[in-house]
Each structure stands twice: as structure tokens, then as C-alpha cells.
């Protein structure tokens, strides 16, 4: 094809073929000028014509109504600082999350159903465990008032909720008991359940219904609540005392626009995976069709109770230190350091004060910014024990193995619980498990099961530090196939659990863990340990298969060898037979 | 190896080999019980021993100070509903984001520097464009008061900020003018710049400094501000009038803990990519070493001014509709529908009212929930024009090509601007571009450049809907190599831009676009169009290379053919020569 024709073809397809890109350099500025004008024109044209072709909504003919045209065709007036100032307004956190509801896990009706159930179940399990009660949680998804609506009920046997707290817990975002402490729990933000209620209200206009009872001798309280999104405050619709024939517990009901569907990322998958990581929990699920599914507890023993810890000095930023100095109830610097932090003995507190050249009996609130800066540096220069780790409750290698085995039929299982580590002063602990072979699909990529504080994470896999660690581990070292930048492939399930007093999620919907290097490293170390064990298994199995092949091959020739020997040595038929047996025996022994 | 030895080896490596997993099923419940106890014990042991080995902090010998032991070894008391109630508290949005600062893009010192600059530059560009001013923005990163601190200054020639608004804009999260409107702009949340100031305060204890001037005839105002994180309110440290010899503009200075480093995801990369997508902007960058880098504008024309639009009725949820009915200034239902929404003429408003069986002159605030439900359904049954699209300002195919060419030396470039589309009632428009071959690395994965409203997105690539679309496109159809679940490989750069009145980011740090199916689909359509053009180029080039090879091969034999013919036909040497020329000529013509 001639050069000229080539060029013509290229410009026909609008593609730009530029073997001499450098030469084009000078022309760019011109092109840019031209293009700006052209684009501006095009934008106007597009706006009149294109949408009718491109958009999936049901559309009439693109006739612009006459009163509409008048409204939008007036020229744009440029804004002044004063114009802009008039537009400035406070944004309520509820308004913010209404518009950004995908941040809370309410991107689409299917996920909305899962997120609502997850938030409810998380709260129930946290409350039961904190109160030392073996959790029994019932989840009912019933058809709602319209076709695409469902009524979700989550009921537990937990300690119940004090009446005065109910409205704010269920109808105010950023309210709760778990944010201001360092303790391993499922909830931590004070957003989840209110967000679920807000989504219900947004899509169905209906309030959230809560029933709670704190003791057999007290009546149950029943509330119906709405959230005033402009103020982020609860609006009480119903407040009454009712009879509820249980000892104690809480029941939440939310009607929402949702989609119920089985398979990956379904309610069932979430409940199954929850049961695996929480063998002390009894779950019952009633589907919209009325089917009852029971996930019975496998142990009567609650996980080791975790302690609340104080912040570790190494994880505290200067700004937080200044705020703590201002807010503390301690009378002296030394007692402030000792009581408001973990791992600071009176002796270490004195040491820090000295290093900062501050009087240990100084009043904390009187310490100036520059002095705080010195104190901050002194803290980071002083040797302080690592944070305590009895605030963490890992699942444990044995339980991970047991969990994997109940769910997955494989040929090989392994699990690792790493020792605790620290990121930004927060203790955390990583666990990993593998299942390989058996009934698992051998073509396609490995499947990753992620957990944070025993809660399965079903969405945003690719955004998660755990996934990143799985991808960045070189599985080819462990006898698996893996393409660059992808998960390993083969009949493999990888399970990762992070336990921490504060899990750094990438968004409020708590679906993925943020990329802190300490976390990525620990996950990788756990995976490498699992990988080495897997490699031993795979290599042994391959070697065994090869041996088997060779053995079969030799075995085939033993009779012929025997015949040859019989002829050469003039053996009897019986002797020949015995020779075959002996040779086979030798082969067996040498190969096994 | 014997079965017995195999088993022993497996248990040595702690791996569990379970060829007959089903048989193990029964044993699980027992194992679980045993394991629970064992783990509990182990957790206690671990807490005393492990941290010293596992943690990257500088550590003393793990001696538990005596007063510490007393504090933590007391038994855990289970909490009652009343205990839990005492812990319940409101969480200020500033406290929330201090603890979750990775949500805002402040995970680590290097990213913190970039995020701070990005938020400042975004604001400057938005303000200039809205005021119809050609933006000139200067970014200075100077060494700070300590080794790991930097002082960032962002100065623009924008319209300035009215004095009364300065404190809240810079020291209150969730405050701004862009959240409550539908208009394409870089900022949209009212969080960014306050978050940068808060991070500076958190890590250095220093306030943010702002200087702003709205007109040549007025004095400049200078503020130093802190944010009261407990209340999420500004605290004014300095408030004064100063001389600033500019016509108008804003200067923001923030000192923060940061790390300055070149390369991928650096400030330079961000500024370069910003210049590409914003050819009307002049940027100047002064590095900590005092080096000055200029990114000069390539055009004097501002992008087409975008209009603010009203929400489209199809994108409004029931809950929002109820709130709008309650808040509107309109006196009748018909005028409410006409004035508070886009694309609803008085005629269509009457149509909707009729379909909902509501009187069109009804007072909006008097409409009950059930009636609102009917109205909501009526809206979705009524044919309404798509939202207007002059609210969008795409970069345009020519400018994308020009931008790619200035930055990347390749053999092939192409770009596509899709027609506008709609997600959740919000208009958006996707553009894509490719650069292939030339100086691009031919081994390894393709590089993806992502933009949202002309802002380059440098982090969280794997969490982004754009990346998902690139991965889920089958590039093998377009003559490229691609592994399952990975980016295509080869000397390729993929550029994607989303323009919208509301970009749904996966977190407040605005680094990745959420996975709305409509967005993923549009990106894929744009990529497929680009891909088809690329395939034409690659296949043509391959064919040309093959032809060239064949031609060379034939050419080699022409002289021999000529010699043979000369001998057979008794030709003269001149005739032979002419034959060679003729044959070569035929070959040339047949091949070109």
C-alpha cells in the first residue's frame, strides 16, 4: 500500500499515525488552539443531538420544550467572589452520605441488601460478645410493600440497648461507643446501622423500627425513627412500651429498595463465611420465599475476650498529643503520660519528661506548642514496650483449617497465624489459610476470601491491601502459575484475616483494607509461609505422579525380563513366577 | 515414601493433608472445640512473647513494668446495656477523618504532599474558571521547620475569597459551595483543603495561613487558622489586613510532615498530567531545591463554560423527593416540578401530576408520604427528556491527541469522545485515548492514565471503575497480549477521562471512580473504539513487515532468474540488466 493511501486510511479511521512524532511537536500548539474552538462548538452540537442515541433511559423525541429553551440558552455570567460566597454552605454529614451512598456500600439494590444485613449482624455480634452472651441471631428478608422492596429484620439475644440511646444509635450518623476506644470489634465508626436506616428511608420513605429489651423484668421499648438529613438528628415517629416475650435482645426492621439474589456476594455467602470465622455463633436466615437456613454453632465457647487499650505513644501524632494534653484529667505531665497511654510506666514517663527538658510535675494543659513538639520528639526517642496484644483475638490456625474444611473440598489445607505487629501505633495480627486441589476449579484465577475482625469482606476486592499482597507474592516460587499483575491461577482458595483494634478501611463501607506497608508486609509473610507448605505438597505430588508413571513402565517389562532370564538360566515356570514377584517387590520398595 | 512417613512429614510442616476431606467432616466439630481452647491459650502466650520479635519499632527487652502488669492483668468484666450506653458519644466529622486520614489521601508523607497540592490547585483552577480568568497557579514546596516537614504554598490569580467565608472554607470539613449544586467542577465535597490544613496541624501543630484579595481597590486579608477537631469549627489565630501587591488572588500556605520524591505518583507527574488535560492553565512549580519548572499554557481559550443544572427527575430517590417537596419555595406541585427539576416543562409537570392522581395546584408541603410515593412512580412512568449536557465540558479528541503527543513519543495515537450518558440521573461523558509503540516499554503491562473532571488520578488504580473497564476489555481482539484478570501488555498507554456534574469517587480522597455499571459500560465502549483503530494499525504494520520480508527474499533471486533467462534466451548483458530492473519494478508495484 502506498504512503499516500496509508495516510488517507488512517485519517478515515480518525486514528493518527505519527511515525515522526517529534516533527509534529511544533504543530501541537496550533492544533490545541484549533481543537479548543472545535471542541467548544462540538459540545454545543452534542448537547442537542447525542443524548437521544446514547442513553439507556426511555426517551421521547428530543424536542426541546419552548419554556425550557428560554431557561438554558441565556449566556453564562462569570461569577465574582461575592457570588461564590453566597453559594457557600455547611454540608451535613447525612446529606454528604446520601449523595455519596456508594461510600457506605449502597451502590446498588443487591449490595444495599447485603450491607444492611451486615451492619445489623455486626452490631448484634459485637453486643453479644461484649456482654459475654453466646450470640443467636435471626435474619429475615421478607417481601416489602412494593415489588422491588424488602423488609429486613435482624434480631439478637444480646444485652439490649438503653432506651435513651436508641434514637441516636439508629438515626444519627457518626454516633457510637466504638469510635473513641481502641478495642477489636466489628463496628468502629458509628455510621453503619444509621446509614442502612437512612438508605431505607431514602428509597421507601419508611422509618426504621427498633425493639429492645435490657432485662426480663423491664418492658421492651419500641421506636420508629427517621433521620433528619439536613441536621443529622433523629426524628422520633413512634415511641412506645410493648410486650416482647424474650429475656433480652434487640430487633431492627428496615424496609428498603433491594434485590435478593443468590450466588457470589449474596446474603447466603456472607452468612456462610461469617459462620466459618465465628464458630461460636448461631445464625438463622429466612429467605423471601420462606425457606429457613440454619448455621448452627460449632463451639459453645466465646472467643477470648479482648481488652480495650490506651493509644500507644509511638502512634500518636503531634496534633493529637497537643489535643490530649489539653483534654486530659491528669494533673501532672508524668501522670498524663502514664495514664493516657499504654506501656508508659511512671519511670518511663519521667524519662520522657526529662528527655523533653520538661518538669514532670508540669500541668499538661499549660504546655506550649513548642514544648509539645519537644515532648513529641522525646517520646519517639525513648524506648517504649510494644502495645499489649491481648486486645487481639485471632481465629487461630486450627479453627481456620476447620472452617476451610467444612466449606471447601480440597486435597490440601494449611493455615498460619502471624505474631502481632503494629501500624501507626495500632496492634494488628494477620492470619492466612490455603485450600488447594480437590473439587476446586483448576482453570481460572485463585479465589480470595478476606476477613477483617472476623467479618467477611465481599466487595472491592481489587482495592484491598490483602489482594495486593496476594498478587505481589510470587506464587511461581510455590509451584503455581501466575501472570504478571494477576492473581495466581489454579485450584486454589486463599483466605486472609486481619484482626486489629482499628482496621484502616478504604471507605466507610468497610469493604477493603487500606494499603499500609506494615499490613501488606505481614500478609505477604503469612502467605509465603503457607506457600512454602503448599509447594512441598505440590512438588511431592508431582514427584509421586512421575514415580508412578516410571513404575508402571518398568512393571510392564518385568515379565519380559523374567522370560529372558528363564531362557538363559533354564529356569522352571515356578522359578520364573517367583522371579517376577521378587522383581516387583524390589521395584515397590525402591519407589516407596 | 510410605503412607506413614508422608503423614508424619505433613504434620511436621503443620500442613494438613486431607485426601479424604469428607471423612474428616465429622471430626470438625471436635477439632473446633479443641481449637477454641488452644487458640485462647495461645493468644495469651503470644501476647507475652511474640511482639518483641515481630514488630518493626525500636524495642527494649520485653520487661513488663510492675505497675503496668497490675493495670492489665485484672479479669475482664462483661458489659451490660448500661455500661455500653455510657460509652455512646457523638463523633465529630473532623475526629472521624483524623483517625481515618487515609480516606482523605493522607496515608503516608509522600501522598500527603501530593494530596495537599492537588486540593489547593483544584480549588484555584475551579475558582479561576468560574470567574472567567485564565488560571496562573504557582506551587512552592519549601523545606519546613524540621527535616521531614515542608511548607507548601499555592498561589493563584483567581477572584479571591470574601473575608467572612475564609475561616470556614479552610478550617471546617464539609463546608463549601460545590456540594449543593450540579455542575462539573474539580472540587465537589467541601472537604479537601480543610483536610490538608487539618493534616498539617496534626503533624506539625501549625495553623494554615491564607491571604486573599478580591479586587485591586480592596485590601488583602490574612488569616491564620486552626481547626477545632472536636467541634469541626475554625479557630482564628491571626486575622489582619495586609498589603499584597496583586490585583486579586488567593495564597494558601500549609506546613506539613511530608516527603518530596520524584518519579511515579510525584508532584511533578501530577502537574504534568494536569497540564495535559488543562492546556489553558499556566503552572509554575518551585521544588525544595529551588529549581523552577514552568508548565506554560498551550491555549488562551478557557474551556467552554459549563452550566449548573437542576437534578433530573429520573435520578431522584423517593426520600429526596419527599425532602424536596418539604423544602421547596414553589407554591404548587406543578411549579415545583417545573422549577426544581431539569427537563420538566409545565406541560410535563401537569402530565406527572395527573398520572399521580394529584391536583397540580396542590401545596407541595402538604403532600403526604403515600401521595409522594405515587408521585415518584408517576415520574418514572412519564417520558422526560434526558438531562441537558451543556453542563459537561469534555477535553475533546483533538486536545487529547495533542496532549498525548506532547508527553509520549509513540508510533500511533488515537482518541475517542463518547456522547454523554447518564447514571443515577447525573449526566457524564467518557473520553479515551491510546498511545502505542515508539519509545514505550514493550515488555510489561500497559500504563493507565485516569482523569476525572480534568484532574489526574494517581492513586488507587486497582480500585477504579476505569481500570476495571480496561482489564475487562478483551485486548486480544485488538492484536495485543493480555493475561486473564490483568491489564494488556505491550508498549501501550491508555488514557481515560470522565467528565460529570458529580463524579462518584470510591472515597473522600477522590482517587478512584466507583463501579457504576453505566460508567464501566461507557468506558468500555470508548476503549473498544480505540482498540479497533489500534488493531488496524498493528495488523497493517505486521502485514507490512511480512511483505518486506518476502520482498527481500524474492529480490535476492531476481539476478539469478535473469542469469538463467540470459543463458536460455541468449540475451546481452545490457538486456539482462534491463530484465533485472523490470522484474524489480514489477515486484515493487505488486507489493506496494
UniProtKB/TrEMBL annotation, chains A, B:
Assigned keywords, A-Z: ATP-binding, DNA-binding, Isomerase, Nucleotide-binding, Topoisomerase
Which Gene3D superfamilies does this chain map to? Answer: 1.10.8.50, 3.30.230.10, Histidine kinase-like ATPase, C-terminal domain (3.30.565.10)
- Ranges annotated as biased composition (Basic residues): 1-48
Q: Which domain of life is it from?
A: Bacteria
Q: Which reaction does it catalyse?
A: ATP-dependent breakage, passage and rejoining of double-stranded DNA
Q: Does the keyword Acetylation apply?
A: no
All copies of the Histidine kinase/HSP90-like ATPase domain together span 108-260
Q: Which Pfam families does its entry note? A: HATPase_c_3, Topo-VIb_trans
Per its record, what are the GO molecular function terms?
Answer: ATP binding; DNA binding; DNA topoisomerase type II (double strand cut, ATP-hydrolyzing) activity
TM annotation in the entry: none
Compositional bias (Basic and acidic residues) spans?
Answer: 66-76
Where is region (Disordered) located?
1-76
EC number(s) for this protein?
A: 5.6.2.2
Q: Which residues bind ATP?
A: 123, 156, 177-178, 187-194, 510
Q: Which InterPro entries match?
A: HATPase_C_sf, HATPase_dom, Ribosomal_Su5_D2-typ_SF, Ribsml_uS5_D2-typ_fold_subgr, TopoVI_B, TopoVI_B_transducer
Which residues constitute the signal peptide according to the record? none
Biological process (GO) annotations held by this record are: DNA replication; DNA topological change
Q: Does the UniProt entry include the keyword Cell inner membrane?
A: no
Leading EC class? isomerase
- Per the similarity annotation, which family is this? Belongs to the TOP6B family.
Q: Which PANTHER family match?
A: DNA TOPOISOMERASE 6 SUBUNIT B (PTHR48444:SF1)
**Subunit description:** Homodimer. Heterotetramer of two Top6A and two Top6B chains.
Its function? Relaxes both positive and negative superturns and exhibits a strong decatenase activity.
Q: What is this protein called?
A: Type 2 DNA topoisomerase 6 subunit B
The source organism is Anaerobaca lacustris
